[in-house]
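Lab notebook page, bench 4
Experiment: in silico fold of construct C2
Operator: M.H.
Input chain length: 385 residues
Purpose: comparison with the prior construct
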Amino acid sequence: MTNIKEKSPKKIMLALSAYYFIYAAGTAAHQSLIPLLLEDAHLTDFQTGIAMSMLPIFTIIALLFWGNVSDKAKYKNNILIFLTAVSGILGFMFLFKLNFIGYVIVISIFVFFYASVFPLIDAFILESGNKFGFKFNPVRMCATIGYAIMVLLNGLLGLKTIFLVACFIYFISLIPFLYVPKIEGHRKAGQKFDILSVILKKPVIMLYLTIFTVNITYGFHSSFFPKYFINEIGDNFQLSLVIFMTPILEIVFFAFADKIAKVVDIRVAVFVSSLIMALRWLFYSVSQNFYVLFFFALTQGIAMLTPYYYTMRYTSQITPPQGNATIQTVNFIIFAGISRALGSVGGGFIVNFMSVREVYMLCGVMCLTIGLVFICSRTKFDKLI
């Protein structure tokens, strides 16, 4: 690691941006294409739901463990380096031909190390930005660009090749991260953080409730959409195009996120994002047209990212420094843990009685309902700084 004094804020930001860009490119396989591996293994819908539920279930376990470890670590950099390297090593397990039990075990072990990297990076960037004087959004935008580019390239590669390339990408991402100055864990000296004092505030509860509900619907979508698309609508390259569109508006959002947060109230932003997700699922329930799905995939970046971004900023603002990694970990548990596990397992059960399109209709109603509950609650939020 380099000494802090040797690096300017711009160089630190560039090193973090390069790390996040490369690392996020690797995640393009594990975030969206695992259902296709399960399809190749001829797993039933119920088995797919169970196997995919290991992603959010072990995400919860991993986040609770590694978020606490990161806050207590001597240097947070070491935790991120370890998790990134282990993700690359364990990623090779997906190259083997496995049965249902094999995939459940492999997904569980892999996710325990892989799942914490994103929230820990976000917390690390927020803290580094505050310490060295650069903004979070441009760095986070690089991750979105890396992910989008790799998703598009994945459409040109074989399924196993995609997962092989992802493993090497994780290792490559460590090169720029070695140039990032060390950040100490805030609780290394035994400091305590009362997390309940943050998460039991009414504004945080309402944000969590909304994110939780919307992500139940996304948990179903992420587990069953790739298989549904390939079987009913298009081919692998068209699927890659649809997935490629999902982060495009994220790039636009991050470019203007600070200005948007100053102008658009949290209540309005979260309510509108819920309505967009409701419309998306309702259109998915009535149309199998590739171009309709392609267009609405474009809305995902803004609709899914907005409530998470506002929640991340808001909770970071009201949380003391020694609890920053922990609270971002909790945010990610709500965003990608419990809710998506329910969506995956519940979806795997419900599709035995309803068609995928009917489940999408149900998802649309859920997003519309929680959006109305959120806006009608008249919750008061502190203005983002």
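Observations: Residues 202-232 form the longest helix (31 residues). The chain has one domain: 9-183+193-376.
Next step: discuss at group meeting.
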